[in-house]
């Protein structure tokens, strides 16, 4: 009976924390969480039709995907740029990244890495875990299922690729993936990204000295000067370089500190089209805020570059701007230029790996 009385005194479910549709704790503001609070019947119907189109395109469990991409690549690209339906995101991400194939080719490998191997990075991973998406309900509970899954994925990767091991920032990538798929699926998607299953490998972003990040920052710096010369000149005068504001853009692909609904839309495109979308979004953000940024002195400029205004973060405005910026050819030229100055990334990586630790 005593137990019953205690239960009756428990607060009603209404006292549970308020979360947005993605599972993040709501701030006490009226900021949008990516969708209007109430959808009209027409909007709901439109979304249902979109999901049906996507299901047809994918096939059962992804069985039709490769065939559809070969037949209608432009349709796939257009639909991905409009945003993958949230209920299908996890599966589509695995299909477009090549991680589903890696998973099928490596049965039992993930379990082996998690259960039987030890990693030199375990303490670093444990220390950082509570800092990864701290306002998301899945990762909030200390030693809860979210934190355990995140630890397992990061530990497994640090064993799988001991050259990369673990670097701060990888947690945000793994955390984002875990919100849409199982541990094992998230692990293989991380492998697909870092080892280059579809696009150029990203592991150079996380090796000692972050060599690939240095290349990307060089490329971004040149692109800003070419696309936004007035702002580029202002950055020079105020001694602002991209490492002061854009490193996280690349290391976490906008999953750190950007609104989640925007990060997801960028990830949809990133997994399909590669890292050039990070440059395009970065340039679009700077272009959107250009007139304000060119007036700001150093301290205020740094703050503004790390805290973009809410209206700049609207995916339906920002992403079309980003898509209209052409960078592919110039990125290749700038990569060649950077390699002439610093040597090829693959050679620098080899040298780093041969150095005694």
Describe this structure in words.
The protein is an all-alpha fold and 357 residues long. It is 62% helix and 0% strand. Helix 3 packs across helix 4, helix 11 packs across helix 12 (183-195) and helix 13 packs across helix 17. It is globular and about 55 Å long.
Provide a concise account of the structure shown.
The chain is mostly helical.
Characteristic terms for this protein:
357 residues, mainly alpha, 22 helices
| Helical content class | 55-70%
The count of DSSP E runs of length 2 or more, i.e. the number of strands, is 0
- The assembly state of the depicted protein chains is single chain
Shape: globular
Helical run tally: 22
Mean pLDDT: 89
Report the structural category. Answer: mainly alpha
Residues in β-strands, percent: under 5%
Largest sheet: none
Please render the helix and strand layout as text:
Blueprint: H1 2-9, H2 41-58, H3 65-71, H4 73-82, H5 89-97, H6 99-105, H7 109-116, H8 122-129, H9 137-140, H10 145-160, H11 170-178, H12 183-195, H13 211-227, H14 229-237, H15 247-251, H16 260-273, H17 276-288, H18 290-293, H19 298-306, H20 315-323, H21 328-342, H22 345-354
Helix pairs in contact: 3-4, 4-16, 6-12, 8-10, 10-11, 10-12, 11-12, 13-14, 13-17, 13-21, 16-17, 17-20
């Amino acid at each position: 009976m005593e137990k019953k009385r205690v239960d009756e005194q428990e607060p009603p479910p209404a006292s549970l924390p308020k979360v947005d549709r993605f599972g993040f704790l709501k701030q006490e503001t009226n900021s949008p969480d990516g969708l209007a609070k109430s959808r009209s019947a027409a909007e709901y119907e439109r979304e249902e039709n979109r999901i049906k189109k996507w299901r047809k395109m994918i096939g059962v469990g992804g069985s039709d995907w490769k065939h559809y991409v070969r037949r209608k690549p432009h349709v796939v690209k257009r639909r991905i740029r409009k945003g993958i339906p949230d209920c299908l995101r996890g599966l589509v991400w695995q299909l477009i990244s090549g991680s589903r194939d890696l998973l099928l080719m490596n049965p039992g490998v993930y379990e082996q890495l998690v259960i039987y191997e030890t990693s030199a990075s375990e303490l670093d991973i444990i220390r950082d875990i509570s800092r990864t998406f701290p306002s998301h309900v899945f990762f909030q509970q200390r030693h809860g299922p979210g934190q355990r899954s995140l630890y397992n994925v990061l530990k497994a990767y640090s064993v799988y690729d001991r050259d990369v091991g673990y670097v701060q920032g990888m947690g945000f990538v793994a955390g984002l993936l875990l919100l849409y798929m199982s541990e094992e699926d998230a692990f293989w998607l991380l492998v697909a990204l870092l080892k280059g299953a579809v696009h150029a490998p990203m592991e150079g972003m996380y090796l000692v000295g972050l060599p690939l990040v240095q290349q990307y920052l060089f490329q971004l710096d040149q692109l800003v000067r070419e696309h936004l010369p007035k702002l580029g000149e202002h950055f020079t005068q105020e001694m602002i370089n991209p490492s002061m504001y854009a490193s996280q853009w690349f290391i976490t692909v906008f999953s750190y500190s950007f609104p989640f609904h925007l990060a997801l839309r960028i990830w949809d495109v990133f997994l399909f089209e590669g890292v050039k979308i990070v440059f395009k979004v970065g340039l679009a953000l700077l272009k959107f805020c250009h007139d304000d940024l060119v007036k700001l002195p150093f301290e205020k400029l740094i703050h503004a570059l790390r805290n973009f205004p809410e209206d700049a973060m609207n995916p339906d405005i920002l992403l079309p701007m980003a898509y209209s910026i052409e960078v592919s050819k110039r990125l290749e030229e700038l990569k060649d230029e950077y390699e002439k100055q610093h040597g090829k990334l693959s050679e620098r990586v080899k040298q780093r790996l041969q150095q005694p630790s």
